[in-house]
Write a structure and sequence with these properties.
Blueprint (H helix, E strand, L loop, with lengths): L6 E4 L5 H10 L4 E4 L3 H9 L3 E2 L3 H5 L3 E4 L4 H9 L3 H4 L5 E4 L5 H13 L3 E4 L2 E2 L2 H4 L4 E6 L2 H14 E8 L3 H29 L4 H9 L6 H10 L10 H17 L5 H15 L10 H9 L15
Helix pairs in contact: 1-2, 4-6, 9-12, 9-13, 9-14, 10-11, 12-13
């Protein structure tokens, strides 16, 4: 493979668009494809070469995919023409959050076509993807990882190699399980404090300045100060990931009671019309279950508005 590989990017959605544009901004030769022509045009405005077909994007040295779920990955990699269009000796870098099962199927197909397959799910959200502050977990052939590393450093601040098989998939699901359960706990904690007559800002200050003040708590407390529930990662997306987590647990013959309960919380949010709201809308569900309305932010009131 060339010292500076040509890059193809398939899937220019919430994550794929800003990441591919960032790669283009550092001067790399990258061509992008999406079924949505408007997304291709947006990527082109950021320096990504438009690919007229999936095969055109796939016929490069290193091909990234950024797809929404197992079904989309199956359609592209197993039922579609991805591997037929890829060069022997090329590297496929799959960045999506998908199940270990479908990923293992893709690995077998890649091996059959002489393609090195890297599982490289990214951690972070679309709001920070353009900043280069994502992280990625990678598993697959070590030599392919070494080739990927300079490119990964263009759009991530940390890269962790974990092994030859599906280790990166389990790492991403483990991280997302912690995020989901933390969001559920945060919702209940805030509402318990409101029931105890704490002001809205007061309980946020308590959480961020206590032993539980993790980076996620700080990050979400900032948006909760103004009750900003615009989605960085939606309740529906979190429910999808929890389905993957519970499925992976069942396949590993282990119980995941917290994951299962948290999935029901997100199911309730979706049922209440909050599917496209940010995943921290767990606060809203907890308020509803507690019989509370929205607080009056102008008075720092934790009681009914």
């Amino acid at each position: 493979m060339a010292e500076t590989p040509t890059i193809g990017w398939i899937g220019l959605g919430k994550m794929g668009l800003p990441i591919s544009s960032r790669i283009a901004a550092v001067g790399r030769d990258i061509a992008g494809y999406d079924r949505d022509q408007e997304r291709i045009a947006q990527a082109a405005s950021g320096g990504v070469k438009p690919a007229a077909t999936l095969a055109e994007a796939a016929g490069r040295d290193m091909v990234f995919t950024s797809l929404p779920d197992d079904r989309a990955l199956k359609a592209v990699a197993l039922d579609g023409d991805l591997f037929a269009a890829m060069r022997k000796g090329a590297i496929l870098v799959e960045t999506s959050t998908v199940s270990p099962g479908i990923s293992a199927e893709v690995a077998r197909a890649a091996d059959g076509h002489g393609v090195a397959y890297l599982r490289a799910p990214v951690s972070g959200n679309a709001a920070i993807a353009h900043t280069g502050n994502l992280t990625c977990f990678v598993s697959g052939p070590r030599a392919a990882f070494e080739t990927l590393l300079p490119v990964a450093q263009d759009f991530t601040r940390a890269q962790k190699y974990l092994g030859e098989a599906e280790e990166a998939r389990y790492a991403k699901l483990s991280v997302n399980l912690m995020i989901a359960v933390s969001a559920a706990m945060m919702g209940e904690s805030i509402v318990l404090a409101r029931k105890g007559n704490l002001g809205w800002q007061d309980i946020l200050d308590v959480l961020t300045n206590s032993a539980v003040g993790s980076p996620m708590v700080h990050y979400k407390a900032k948006s909760l100060e103004t009750r900003d529930f615009n989605s960085t990662f939606s309740c529906r997306q979190m429910a999808k990931d929890l389905d993957l987590i519970v499925g992976a647990g069942h396949a590993a013959e282990m119980a995941l009671p917290l994951a299962t309960l948290t999935r029901e919380i997100y199911g309730a949010l979706i049922g209440r019309g909050e599917g496209e709201t940010d995943f921290i809308a767990t606060v809203r569900l907890a308020e509803w279950l507690a019989g509370l309305g929205e607080p009056d932010l102008d008075t720092n009131d934790g009681r009914l508005a």
